[in-house]
């Protein structure tokens, strides 16, 4: 076993695919002190300007949320002590679910919310509970790993359709003979930053008596009126919509939720193993998320979303100026994204690692994303912007990209 695993690790090294962890010595923020232990780092802490977190609104280190977490611990203690169906479902959890249902009520009638410890668990719970042997799941090729794994674990028949290929999906779903059908898609695709064609997908679902599952991990809090997410952004409302969202990205804390018609939520409570058989999230965390939702929905949340949009515009305007030659001669591409996720697709894993290392040498932290997370030949720098960044931070990033790009010419 050990010899086999060592060989597999060596092969990953040879293909520039081995992953390494870093240790964050300070809070999630644009400037973090990081320690890295690998063959190219000496293990000394250093401050980096980070463009890699999913803290899109810059709330992860917000003083009000820090105080809310402390208040939650004073009220409810540290741990929940059991699963939700035993004794772990606290008033904090119940109130958070009410707050989420109120926030997302424009998405559909009789909507309720159910909270989970992580988005991964929420997607596994959702798809395994709904994906029985009389169901077909239609999953976008670029969906998040949690959706892919949830579909694999379900008893349903699974069909993976090419990214945003509506015509091909409709041909396949029109020929479906199973009793129930689920169309499953990211709302904002995490590695590309583009949006699913949700109005068209919902229309297709309505024509063929299907339900539409939308993973809104990267839209909730950022897009739509009061940060309600991608469904609000495109103006959709239907009882056929099932929305999963995370609470550790734009919301800045931790956890996840599923929001859907009350009957679907009731069924998840009865049958979703990833919900039933796990200890509930610490109630103090749920208490802190409630404070986050208030920030997201108030004027401060709106100001942060406007500022983030300004940063995205400034970054996209600057990239062709600093990387013009490489974009034309080497085929590098800035993905067509208007969200906080701004991937620079460079192709090879070696180029992605080299660019990431060159940026880090200038004190800028941008991760290289490689297969199997993204398709072969599409390795990239996954640049993420946060409302906690300033325009000066974006200018420094562009300057570092220009310098790193010159080394690649």
Topology:
Blueprint lengths: L1 H13 L7 E3 L6 E8 L2 E2 L3 E5 L12 H14 L7 H5 L2 H14 L6 E6 L2 H12 L4 E6 L4 H9 L3 E5 L4 H9 L5 E7 L11 H10 L3 E5 L14 H4 L7 E6 L9 E6 H10 L1 H4 L6 H15 L1 H31 L3 E2 L6 E7 L1 H13 L2 E2 L2 E2 L9 E6 L6 H18 L1
Helix pairs in contact: 2-12, 4-12, 5-6, 13-15, 14-15
Evaluate the radius of gyration: 22 Å
**How far apart are the first and last residues' alpha carbons, in Å?**
43 Å
The spatial strand order of the largest sheet comes to 5-11-10-9-8-6-7
Find the count of extended strands (DSSP E, 2+ residues). 16
CATH class of the largest domain: Alpha Beta
Question: Per CATH, which architecture of the largest domain?
Answer: 3-Layer(aba) Sandwich
Overall average residue pLDDT: 95
Number of helices: 15
Helix content: 40-55%
Count of folded domains:
2
Q: What class would the helix/strand composition place it in?
A: alpha/beta
What is the strand content? 15-25%
Contiguous low-pLDDT stretches (5 residues minimum) are none
Mind describing the biggest β-sheet? Answer: 7 strands, mixed
